[in-house]
């Protein structure tokens, strides 16, 4: 730990399915539960309108509340799945073709399904890869504040990676899985949210990782950062999307007989983000996915009353 970094006053909360921390003007809570039961899944599916991933954690939530302003921000499976395309895929949706499209679809829509899907068609009644650019949301109970584009010339509008890589103590850490699916043995799709609360800042990473075997890899990251010292109080939100052909990524394996890294979201993200931007954030895997690229926004919080 850097000698000048002091531990702020904070309190921790814990119950069987939730953990939280109160620090400065923030209340942060993470709820983690088992996979949703049948009744809960029916309600979620009715809400989102698509067949659900094999493992849907409908009761898992990460919530941040800025107590003095009433501003809140959340991550939840239901809202994430509402970001999955429901309907035929169009230009920009990043549709993925696989040989087993029709059999996969029937496995999800039931044995009596009569939806005709040509084997070579890229359009589906919904995006079977569960691609979503969801990066959290403010619930209806939150004070309304607006995000605006960050100023690329303003250093305070960028996430300070040096601060995040310092060996400062972690006051609070949580992992909140939202969904996972093996894409009918054609790969995997999962969305995991992680939060670190440190003496000087809050950092969140929500990462969607998609692997379609022999077709592509795709990653979508949302990073949320807040420094307690920011003046005025500032939230930075950075969203990035990458994709590349499966073979191009697999060629980066250090050991050709060890394919374990191909199932590691951290390794996949490192490889994709390490490619030139023209490769993984423009050309991609030729799907035309609009989620490729990087955007940064800021939200200014009201200053607490003296």
Automatic annotation (TrEMBL):
The source's domain of life comes to Eukaryota
Gene Ontology CC terms: cytosol
Q: Which InterPro entries match?
A: Phosphatase_reg/MetRdx, TIP41-like
Which Pfam families does this UniProt record tie to the protein? Answer: TIP41 (PF04176)
Q: Which GO terms describe its biological process?
A: TOR signaling
Concerning its family, UniProt says: Belongs to the TIP41 family.
Protein name listed in UniProt: Type 2A phosphatase activator TIP41
């Amino acid at each position: 730990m850097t000698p000048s970094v002091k531990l702020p006053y904070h309190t921790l909360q814990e119950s069987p399915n939730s953990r939280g921390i109160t620090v400065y003007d923030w209340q942060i809570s993470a709820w983690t539960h088992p996979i949703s039961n049948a009744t809960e899944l029916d309600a979620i599916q009715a809400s989102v309108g698509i067949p659900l991933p094999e493992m849907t954690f409908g009761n898992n939530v990460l919530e941040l509340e800025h107590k003095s302003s009433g501003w809140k921000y959340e991550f939840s499976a239901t809202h994430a799945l509402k970001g999955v395309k429901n309907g035929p895929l169009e230009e920009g949706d990043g549709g993925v073709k696989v040989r087993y499209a029709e059999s996969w679809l029937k496995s999800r829509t039931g044995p009596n399904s009569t939806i005709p899907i040509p084997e070579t068609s890229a359009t589906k009644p919904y995006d079977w890869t569960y691609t979503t650019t969801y990066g959290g949301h403010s619930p209806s109970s939150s004070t309304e504040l607006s995000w605006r584009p960050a100023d690329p010339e303003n250093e305070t509008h960028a996430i300070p990676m040096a601060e995040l890589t310092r060996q400062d103590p972690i006051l609070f850490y949580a992992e909140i899985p939202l969904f996972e699916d093996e894409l009918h043995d054609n790969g995997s799709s999962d969305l995991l949210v992680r939060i670190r609360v440190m003496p000087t800042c809050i950092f969140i990473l929500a990462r969607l990782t998609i692997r379609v075997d022999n077709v592509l890899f795709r990653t979508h990251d949302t990073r949320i950062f807040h420094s307690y010292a920011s003046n005025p109080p500032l939230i930075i939100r950075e969203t990035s999307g990458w994709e590349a052909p499966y073979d191009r990524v697999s060629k980066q394996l250090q050991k050709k007989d060890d394919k374990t890294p191909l199932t590691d979201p951290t390794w996949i993200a490192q490889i994709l983000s390490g490619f030139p931007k023209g490769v993984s954030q423009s050309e991609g895997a030729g799907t035309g996915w609009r989620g490729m690229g990087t955007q940064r926004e800021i939200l200014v919080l009201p200053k607490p009353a003296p």
